[in-house]
Amino acid sequence: MEKSGWLLTKNHLNDIVTITVVTKTEESYEFAVRGIEMNLNIACVSGDGIGPEVIAEAKRVLNKITEEYNHNIVYKDVLMGGASIDAYGEPLTDEVIGIAKAADAVLLGSIGGNTATSPWYKLAPELRPEAGLLRLRKALNLFANFRPAYLYEELPEACPIRKDVIGNGFDMVIVRELTGGLYFGERHTKEVNGVITAVDTLSYSEKEIHRVAVKAFEIAMKLVKKPNQFDVILTENMFGDILSDEASAITGSIGMLPSASLNETRFGLYEPSGGAAPDIAGKGIVNPIATILSAAMMLRYSFDLEEEAGKIESAVKQVLKEGYRTVDIMPQDKNQCKTVKQVGTETMGKLIAEYI
């Protein structure tokens, strides 16, 4: 067949050039030519406790994605939380805020330590590790937090709810307002009629409610297209914190829950929903999946790389389907344990990267 012409089109979002060759018989063939599609500039905070371990595996998976899709990724590693206190005497420096603002997104491991034994918690509240995270959220105007809670079909035994109640599982997103409410409201203690009284103020402006509601409705468009896919829960800061932590109980482990904190642009901070877990830090047993899935959310929300995000999520599902488990998602039934393989943090990260 002789070629009678061709048509070049370009997907400007992903910088993909498509060549369509049309023959005399009106048959056509398409060839997608990929170049360096996108530069990803990421401020990376390993943080405290298990943070360095899970961030290492998220980087491993992101590096594999960028190799497969010819992206260029640059990490700017910075300190926050307890690690920053040890180095600089404060949980977050102005320099780190500047680096975060200059980046396209922030990837965070974990912040904090053992509140009973760590010297960090002998400091004034505004100098403790978590104060750095609160300050960063304010500085970057990260007012909307997305926490997906998904029960993988490969992990039915992880859900404590009866099968007749849970049915075919669930897929929900908790949208939590992040910079207002009780955590940021005015508080004081004073004597009222001879009684010492403590007051915490839960205050929201109309604008604060509107902007996070808009984010929630943007997520719920998908709900109209696929009504059985998931539900969206919009909530105030403190109650969103409680609900999203409770969601870990029905998904099997908080080590499976990613999160994204967004402002009014595409900029976001991405982190696992769990804490620093200092009791298991350095043992190589922590589940890195929540952090890896947070990296997938970063590709989706901050970089519009839907295909790449889906690749990571599919790889996670495949690894679980093959029977690999970290200790937190091992079955409780001893007989079921015989059908799966327990692996550590690094092995789980390597397996997910291999399945991409």
Oligomeric organization of the protein chains = single chain
Poorly predicted regions are 1-19, 31-35
CATH superfamily of the largest domain: Isopropylmalate Dehydrogenase
The coarse overall form would be globular
Most strands sheet: 8 strands, mixed
CATH topology of the largest domain: Isopropylmalate Dehydrogenase
Alpha carbon gap, first and last residue: 37 Å
Strands, total number: 15
Mean pLDDT: 85
Strand residue content: 25-35%
Strand order of the largest sheet: 5-4-6-13-12-7-8-11
Judging by the overall fold, what is the CATH architecture of the largest domain? Answer: 3-Layer(aba) Sandwich
Percent range for helical residues? 25-40%
- Could you state the order of secondary-structure elements as H and E? EEEEHEHHEHEHEEEHEHEEHHEHEH
Rg calculated over all Cα atoms: 23 Å
Total domain modules: 2
Number of helices: 11
What would you call the structural class? alpha/beta
What does this structure look like?
By secondary structure, this protein is of the alpha/beta class. It has two domains: 1-35; 38-172 and 235-354, Isopropylmalate Dehydrogenase (3-Layer(aba) Sandwich). Helices cover 36% and strands 26% of the residues. The chain contains eleven helices and 15 strands. The strands form four sheets. The protein has an eight-stranded mixed beta sheet, with helices on both faces. The radius of gyration is 23 Å and the shape is globular. 37% of the residues are buried. The model is unreliable at 1-19 and 31-35 (pLDDT under 50).
